[in-house]
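Posting here for the record, re: zinc ion.
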Amino acid sequence: MMKTMTRMKIYRPNYNLAEAKAIEFLNYLEKKELPIKLIKFKTIFDDLEIKTYSWYSKKMGLSIEKVCDDLGSEDGCCVYNEVNGKYRIYYNDTIENEGRKRWTLAHELGHYALKHHENYGHNIMQRNGNLDVNYDAFEKEANCFARNLIAPPYVIFHIKDVNPSLIQHVCNISFEASWNIFKFIKQGIQEFGRGYSRDLAKKMGFESFLFSINNRFFCKECRCNFILEAPSHCPCCGRKALTKTPFKYGDDFTMKYPAIEVDHKSRARVCPNCQNEEMEYEGDFCKICGYYIVNDCSNDDGNYNGESCGILLPGNARYCYKCGAKSTFYMKNFLNEWNYNSNAPLEVSEDDLPF
Ligand SMILES: [Zn+2]
Ligand SMILES: [Zn+2]
Ligand SMILES: [Zn+2]
Ligand SMILES: [Zn+2]
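Prediction output follows.
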């Protein structure tokens, strides 16, 4: 007995490895945005399946309570099949707390990512299980992986005025978890002077996500939210006072008001006047009908000082978001008033849906 004990290697958690693995996993995802869509990983790895407790309960004819007993955890587990080398994660989908479910899933993904089963000879890793002296270390590693996957600190760090409830909302995790992440980041800055360069977030592909979360505005008049850099007027209804908020209140402006599609210079891709589709522009004019086809600030609302503010506008902007003047598309009646026939059903292409 003593002999076995002395030979047993005590495993210490390798946090750097867990962090690196989380970064590797984020790299596999096509969309770089929060909340992370954890379920996507089952389509990325051939040797991984993700199943719910409801599925297991139906298949085995067991109550959920029995499933918890059977799998040894109320939350979830990760099972390794030595014969075919495949992993299966089970998570308890009947738990109402969405944040807790997501954390379990991320944690079990950690056991998979860090190959705990293969490396340490366990076939099953249960959340809150307690199999041997090393189990605690595996749990810590899996939690570190989960934290870095679900709330990557180099992204969270660059969210303006970040606080625990914002982290909870943005990452879709429990309040408790978001507090821990908040403390972890604050402590890193205050005690160790640890920060995260913007370059890492950029390199990881989160730049446009960060732009959108840091530049989202809500208009109380038309009840739209939109993403623009430092707007002073609503591009939809022209109202002046806007609320800056990372939360998606009201309607998504681009989804509710489909746009005339424009290029990077705000030029219509199809002439809104003559419907000419072969847009070989003569400068900013349609080659066929000669119409000005740029959506920009018309600078013509009667109370502006006459100097062009020169802003190129999105294809659905009715108003210049800098000075409040009408947009050229709106002036020419290519766009309806924002409150025109607003009950009409909208045509939204499947590509525009956020899920
Ligand atoms: Zn675990
Ligand atoms: Zn508005
Ligand atoms: Zn034309
Ligand atoms: Zn303007």
